[in-house]
């Protein structure tokens, strides 16, 4: 399987900082930086301008991107990779995963930070809602963010590092793909619950 050179394969033995640097290089440093900085720049602009409207649209837009991609990955991309040949699947995985990690972290972090500012009146840009609905939505939003970092991202990276290993285990990659599907269904369900909560405090 011609998917990586020996330098790339040794990344599985390195520490956290080295892995992040490797992922940034694999994703393209400009893309990695842009994925984090562009959405957060809109959050920063909202705060600098004191614009609740811009903050609200930043929150909605970032959330739509986060939710959409989080559902597409296990529902479409994962099964598609499973239907490809070994070399084609490895080539796509090693190209896609580093970009997806930075992209999703940037948009999901922007979503929860902007939502926190909107629902925290003491920060000065509160959107005018409070109580149980908004508190539950905020807690679930941060819970989904933490869950995304701890589970789906780790599964995607596990598949990535397995692909880069000297002798990739096809059965392990298949197992990761199945776990991704289950995790994706759970994450999608929780996102729908979050939308219900947001609708509840917005309308009620």
What topology does this entry show?
Elements: H1 6-9, H2 16-27, H3 29-49, H4 52-82, H5 86-118, H6 132-150, H7 152-164, H8 170-203
Helix pairs in contact: 2-3, 2-5, 3-4, 3-5, 4-5, 4-8, 5-6, 5-7, 6-8, 7-8
Task: Describe what this molecule looks like in 3D.
The structure is a single chain. This protein has one domain (16-199). Mean pLDDT is 83; it is low at 1-9. With 204 residues, it is an all-alpha fold. It has helices at 6-9, 16-27, 29-49, 52-82, 86-118, 132-150, 152-164, 170-203. Helices cover 82% and strands 0% of the residues. Keywords: Membrane, Transmembrane, Transmembrane helix. The chain crosses the membrane at residues 29-50, 56-84, 96-119, 131-151, 181-201.
Structural descriptors:
204 residues; mainly alpha; 8 helices; globular; disordered N terminus
The proportion of residues forming helix, as a percent range, comes to over 70%
Q: How would you classify the helix and strand content by structural class?
A: mainly alpha
Give the rounded overall mean pLDDT.
Answer: 83
The helix-strand sequence is: HHHHHHHH
Query: Unreliable runs, pLDDT <50, ≥5 residues?
Result: 1-9
Q: Describe the largest sheet.
A: none
Q: Using DSSP, what is the number of strands?
A: 0
Q: What characteristic shape results from the CA principal axes?
A: globular
Transmembrane segments: 29-50, 56-84, 96-119, 131-151, 181-201
Keywords: Membrane, Transmembrane, Transmembrane helix
Give a brief outline of the structure:
With 204 residues, the chain is mainly α. The chain is built from eight helices and no strands.
């Amino acid at each position: 399987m011609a998917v990586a050179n020996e330098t790339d394969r040794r990344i599985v033995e390195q520490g956290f900082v080295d892995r992040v640097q490797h992922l940034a290089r694999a994703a393209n440093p400009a893309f990695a930086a842009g994925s984090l900085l562009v959405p957060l720049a809109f959050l920063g602009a909202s705060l600098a301008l004191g614009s609740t409207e811009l903050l609200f649209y930043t929150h909605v837009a970032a959330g739509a991107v986060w939710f959409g991609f989080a559902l597409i990955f296990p529902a479409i991309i994962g099964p598609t990779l499973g239907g490809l040949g070994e070399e084609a699947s490895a080539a796509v995985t090693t190209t896609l995963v580093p970009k997806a990690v930075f992209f999703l972290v940037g948009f999901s972090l922007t979503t929860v930070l902007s939502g926190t500012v909107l629902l925290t009146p003491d920060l000065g840009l509160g959107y005018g809602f409070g109580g149980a609905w908004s508190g539950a939505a905020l807690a679930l939003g941060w819970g989904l963010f933490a869950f995304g970092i701890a589970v789906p991202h780790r599964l995607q990276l596990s598949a990535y590092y397995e692909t880069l290993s000297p002798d990739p285990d096809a059965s392990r990659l298949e197992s990761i793909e199945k776990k991704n599907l289950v995790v994706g269904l759970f994450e999608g369900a929780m996102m729908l619950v979050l939308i219900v909560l947001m609708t509840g405090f917005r309308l009620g």
